[in-house]
Amino acid sequence: MPNVRAGRLSLFIAITAVACGDGPTAPDPEPTYLLPFPVGDSALLIQGNHGSFTHFGPSAYGFDFRMTIGRVVTAMRAGQVVAVEERYLDGNRTPGQENLVFLRHDDGTFARYYHLTVNGALVSLGQRVAAGDTIGLSGDTGYSTTPHLHVDVTRDCVAWGCQTVWIRFQNAGADTLVAGRVYRAQ
Ligand SMILES: [Zn+2]
Q1: Which architecture does CATH list for 42-184?
Q2: Is 115 assigned a catalytic role?
Q3: Catalytic residue of the set 55, 105, 115, 148
Q4: Residue ranges per domain, the chain?
Q5: What's the gap in Å between 8 CA and the centre of ligand 1?
Q6: What DSSP string describes 42-106?
Q7: How many angstroms separate the alpha carbon of residue 74 from the centre of ligand 1?
Q8: What is the pLDDT of residues 81-121, one digit of tens each?
Q9: Which of 43, 55, 178, 185 would be a feasible disulfide site paired with 65, CB 3.0-4.6 Å?
Q10: 123-178: per-residue pLDDT in tens?
Q11: How many angstroms separate the alpha carbon of residue 183 from the centre of ligand 1?
């Protein structure tokens, strides 16, 4: 009965399309994220979610990518720039003195990009950026033991200590990133 099945499937698709079109509050698809560096670039993940070094408690969800100082950092998702700091010197090894860019996404979550190099924020407060846009240059500022980029996403608040959330990268070739592996932005 292949024709009947095909007919039912078509009807289902048609009903679903109408329902989505009529509904003013159709649910958003799960947001996905791009790796925070340009397509074609690769980086070693030195700490992922639930990493024992610094990714625990409210900070459990986050990613540390090894990056030499000065590598291009790109937006994981479209958003508006809500915080910029770029005055600190690389190698300062001082918690709280991180150069950073924070973006606010349209659903109210925030993406945080930490440890950028001095003068390494390439966006301005209030600026809107698209996913994949260049936003900064990697560095080694603040609470950092080696040049790298820390990224994470928070909900409801953006300061250090706010609860981070699990995110999925759409161009890493894997849903769950594992420390010790190299990921290439596809
Ligand atoms: Zn980290």
Answers
A1: Distorted Sandwich (2.70)
A2: no
A3: 148
A4: 42-184
A5: 50
A6: EEEEEE-TT-TTT--GGG-S-EEEE--TT-EEE-SS-EEEEEEE--SPTT---TT--EEEEEE-T
A7: 17
A8: 999 999 999 999 999 999 999 999 999 999 999 999 999 99
A9: 43
A10: 999 999 999 999 999 999 999 999 999 999 999 899 989 999 999 999 999 989 99
A11: 16
